[in-house]
Amino acid sequence: MHVVTAQQMRDLDRYAIQEVGIPGLVLMENAGRGVLCTLKNCFPSYRSQKVAVLCGKGNNGGDGLVTARYLKDEGVAVEVFLAAAPDRVSGDARLALDIFLRSGGSVRPLGVPEGLAPEDLPLSSFGLIVDALLGTGLKAQVRDPLAGIIRLINHSRVPVLSVDIPSGLCSDTGRALGAAVEAQVTVTFGLPKLGHFLYPGRRLCGELYLVDIGIPGKALEQQDLRCQVITPEMLRGILGPRQPDAHKGHFGHLLVVAGSAGKTGAGVMACEAALRVGAGLVTMALPRSLNLAMEARLTEAMTLPLSEGPEQSLSIAALEEILGALGGKQAVALGPGISTMGETPELVRELVARVCLPMVIDADGLNALVGHLELLRAAPGVRILTPHPGEMARLLSVSTSQVQSDRIQAALELSRRSSSHVILKGAGTVLVEPGGNVRLVPTGNPAMASGGMGDLLTGMIGGLLA
Fold first, then answer.
1. Mean pLDDT over all residues of the chain?
2. What is the pLDDT of residue 273?
3. Thinking of the domain 6-225, which architecture would CATH place it in?
4. Average of pLDDT values for 367-375?
5. What is the pTM of this model?
6. Which residues, 6 or more positions from 204, have their beta carbon under 8 angstroms from its beta carbon?
7. What is the pLDDT of residue 247?
8. Of 3.90.550.10, 3.40.1190.20, 3.40.50.720, 3.40.50.1860, which CATH number belongs to 249-465?
9. In the chain, where are the structural domains located?
10. At what angle do helices 407-418 and 389-396 cross, to 10 degrees?
């Protein structure tokens, strides 16, 4: 399922209106009707409740006015609050306002001279709030009086349905631009936006519903849409059934270069994860002094004891030993628990530069590459980088907060600089291919916030590569 930026959605709307000839008001009517249908399904007792529709002066407010008109026509006690002077409303939103007024509706100006003061807004007397204040075009910080209105909505404890996107949320990054509405339900139009899937936007949206407002398929064909949310349908069939006469040699041999004193568990988890996803054979390459412990711990995986330094981490002397062991291997997983002590970082950089096999790199494997991304650009094989936000920040020489403020752009930048596949871990994992295609992962939960999850991921990717 494609996901779009605010600009891409505007381009789709523009194509539908200008090139195909669908009036903007028709799209707005379809949006309002879709909001009503979703409202009915999510809030079945809506007829017996008072509904407050809070509208801004733009097209988002126009969608809210259409919704309010449909509610009024059904006999619902609906009250519309317009966070602008009526003469400031223009375009299709103005048409929607005029139609609403001519249909017997009325609006109460809010937060403007001669209008209702935000602090006097009686939200607690309503059973449902429809938020149509600000849409996907928002770029700047929300300021009063709108910021104050949003805070009142959040403090009201009244259920909220947001139109297109919660007001105050950046539709491209998922960040709250100052104050942002905390919705129980969000109804979006045409295609979902990036901010619906990137935290904290994903949380602020509540349940997300998509409404078809009539954007023609031809409009989609005109856009270079590079971002998708991964769905089960996209993954179905990638791994086919195994033949009855298959054996372990058919399913690859993964070399896991991992472990140092105090961090052997990372390598163990990576090996076991690789086996769990179906790798035929797995070998763990580790410091020689730790081999006996791993022989006892690992049952299915094999071990390859290597040269080490006095700190019990791999030394540069292990380079030729590893290169000599690549025969018969199909992939390498590099980094879990290897540390950044002694000669290990130098070893990592040599392996990245010289190993021709596909390689997934994580943890201290990534830390060893800080300031050396040129090695990845020149690498002789496919490289998959799996940083968490802190590792990403170090690789890009920025702060973790900068990474988190725009996770997609951070992943795209690292992929561009390294010519590698990038998986930026965390809530709302981002996958980027070297060509710029982006995939968003909608799954995961807080129970995964635990040490070792990244090692499991490294092993799984390595097992699938093999």
1. 95
2. 97
3. 3-Layer(aba) Sandwich (3.40)
4. 97
5. 0.91
6. 166, 169, 176, 180, 181, 182, 183
7. 93
8. 3.40.1190.20
9. 6-225, 249-465
10. 50
